[in-house]
Amino acid sequence: MSSKLSLKQAVFVVGVMIMILFLVTTLSGNSKRIISGPPLNLKIPKIAVDTLIEQVGLTREGDVDSPDGPTNTAWYNLGPRPGEIGNSVIVGHFGWKNNTPAVFDNLSKLEKGDKIYVEDDQGIITTFIVNEIKTYDSKDNASDVFNSNDNKSHLNLITCKGVWNEKNKGYSERLVVFSTKE
User: Fold this and answer.
1) How far is residue 37's CA from residue 48's CA, in Å, rounded to a whole number?
2) Fewer CB in 10 Å around end: N or C, the chain?
3) What are the boundaries of each domain within the chain?
């Protein structure tokens, strides 16, 4: 009877060791973990951005929605979370009415190599490095902002740029900062 008990004990110990190994690998940051919750905070030290991240989907017209006010950003929640494989997208305002400062007024000042930090609901901070800044006409095909196939984690920041069009209630261009997880 003692041999059956020790066999059960051995199986139990091996099972516990496997669970511990799984947890250590998952929590170490060296694995390709999926962030457990939504992003909550965006920090870009070079341009003094430290702001909350809202969640948005699509507008009725099929465009990515935007944050409610000038000071927050918004994560496009129909795509990957920052830190997951693929292109995560965060949008923010530029050129708010009555000269009120907007969160991405200085986004164009970022340069290749600058760092962007996203904190999730678990307090985990993921670092991204800027690798390209690109301007699109408002009518351009910008599918590369949302799609990637290199099996890496990207964060793309989008804001408006250019000339305000009073008739269309929008700017003539879009500025996109492309970054890759460090």
Assistant:
1) 25
2) N
3) 1-31, 35-181
86 contacts 148 by C-beta, under 8 angstroms: yes
User: At 16, is the secondary structure helix, strand, or coil?
Assistant: helix
- Three-state DSSP at 13 gives helix
H or E stretch covering 92: strand 86-92
Query: CA 71, CA 103: separation in Å to the nearest integer?
Result: 5
- Decide if 137 contacts 173 (C-beta within 8 A): yes
Q: Which of 38, 50, 123, 132 is nearest to 92 (CA)?
A: 50
Q: Are 171 and 102 in contact (CB under 8 A)?
A: no
Q: Do residues 92 and 72 touch, judged by C-beta distance below 8 A? A: yes
Q: Give the C-alpha separation, 98 to 127, whole Å.
A: 34
The answer regarding whether domain 35-181 maps to CATH 3.40.50.620 reads no
66-73: list long-range contacts, CB under 8 Å, 24+ apart: 66/91, 66/92, 66/93, 67/91, 67/92, 67/93, 67/103, 69/93, 70/96, 70/100, 70/101, 70/102, 70/103, 71/101, 71/102, 71/103, 72/103, 73/42, 73/103, 73/104, 73/157
pLDDT tens digits, one per residue of 124-156: 999 999 999 999 988 887 877 888 889 999 999
